[in-house]
Amino acid sequence: GLETTTVGEFYIKVLWPPQWSRDFSPVKYAAERKGLDSTSLVLQVVHGKRKILIPSGIDKDTEWELIDSAGDELKSDILILGKQGHNSVTSLEFLNRVSPSEIIVQYGYSKGYSFNDYILKDTFERAKKNGVLAAYRTDLSGAVTVTIKGDSYDIKPFRKGTEIMLSDDFG
Fold first, then answer.
1. Could you give the 3-state DSSP secondary structure of residue 161?
2. Cβ–Cβ < 8 Å for 147, 50
3. What's the confidence (pLDDT) of residue 147?
């Protein structure tokens, strides 16, 4: 089963990797997959009816395994994109299962340009097709704060007006 930890009014569910058992060892799993990304931690933060999914650095194959193992548990209001929004992950199928309204992309700002602009365009297109309303990029927004109160939540970027409305032309 899934491990859960309570922190105040929030609880945190570990959705991946599966618990160690005689049949599952993350070390063996990573070796078979040729990389540690397949054993990256996937967390879901829950407060009331609101959920935030944090898939860290999982690869596309692990996305599929997570879809199979967690199913509808993946549904979340906010998705913090794995692998800094790289287009090799966050598949349309994964977005469909998570079904977020908003996404957050964490990566830095370097030498006056964002290195992932061309990569993010594909990811944002997939998100837009799946009904995602807005995206927040930490390279443009700085810190992004999510506040959950009751059944509602609010996302505030440090730099105002930097959210990207995916209904607009963002390319």
1. coil
2. no
3. 94
